[in-house]
Amino acid sequence: MMRSNTRGFDTAARPFARTSGQRLMQSVTISIVSLVMPFAALRAQTQSPVSAQASASPQSDASKSTQPFLVFPDTKSPDRYAIAWGLPKHPEVWAKVSRFQQQHPAGAEAGSEEDKQLDELFQNVNAVGDAIENYVIDLRAGTIIRKLDCPRLPGWTHGREAEPDYWTMADRKPNHHDLEVVWSPQSDLVLINHTWRWDCVTFCAVTLGDGRATSELDLNRPLSAAVRNLVARSFPRGFRYTKKDLNVSFSDVKQVGDDKFSAVGDAVVEKYWSGGGAKVDFALLPAGKGKTVKLVGVRAQL
């Protein structure tokens, strides 16, 4: 299993209808056209260049040249797919992000001016973070084949709402966010694990085939419940928190067999108490066009 951490005018000529036998009308028409053409040419030559440029929409030009997604580093499958992000509801912000990414690819050195631009872009994206979208894309075709819609549970951290989808730009990512992507050797299954600090934001499995993503399965809810049930048994006597207060996140996702997987689940109560890690074993079994998850076992991590 491979693992990775971390979008002319059509001119239809309309022929002039002529009535045969009306030679006089033809003669008059030709004379009129010959008089009008020089004036039309003169008007075209004297048209203001500014007016001509204004007739083209800058936003439409930007959308034509802007790619609708950016691929996350180290998320490519062994075959043809990858995980990416986009911001289609805010094309003006996205155009700036895409342009900056093209001019400053990952790994390139950045000066103080570039850092200032990046800080400003980060603020712009953060302001519309709820509109960020994550995708499975086909690199070979250059197309989005699925918008990820993993169930998003509210974070257990008190007073915190659900986090937006993952994003990154020019080697920089939002604070405390991490993405882990694990591909099957045949690129027919991908596990996508997005964490924020102590919490799992989303953890899902996507089934692929014939250039399409056929299903999406939530792993967060069933696996988090198993970890909470186990860790709650080790609560100290008189502990004022319950298992509902536990923040659970996952890491070190692996494929250990054809349909068998494992992950490490960490459970804490914010920064106040840590219950240690738990090893979670689970299977992804065929179910229609997709998969279903079966918990194999959960035990304390030694």
Give a short overview:
With 302 residues, the protein is of the alpha+beta class.
3D structure, described in words:
By secondary structure, the chain is an alpha+beta fold. It has one domain (58-300). It has six helices and 13 strands. The chain has a five-stranded antiparallel β-sheet. The protein has a four-stranded antiparallel β-sheet with strand order 2-3-4-5. α4 (91-103) packs antiparallel against α5 (112-127). The chain is globular and about 60 Å long. It starts with a strand and ends with a strand.
Provide the helix percentage: 25-40%
Order of helices and strands: EHHHEEHHEEEEEEHEEEE
SSE-based structural type: alpha+beta
Which term fits the overall shape? globular
Q: How many beta-strand runs?
A: 13
Helix and strand layout, with pairings?
Layout: E1 2-5, H1 23-46, H2 49-54, H3 58-65, E2 70-71, E3 81-86, H4 91-103, H5 112-127, E4 133-138, E5 143-147, E6 177-183, E7 189-196, E8 199-209, E9 212-218, H6 220-231, E10 247-255, E11 260-269, E12 273-287, E13 290-300
Antiparallel strand pairs: 1-6, 2-3, 3-4, 4-5, 6-7, 7-8, 8-9, 10-11, 11-12, 12-13
Helix pairs in contact: 4-5
List keywords for this structure.
5-stranded antiparallel sheet, 4-stranded antiparallel sheet, 13 strands, 26% helix, 33% strand
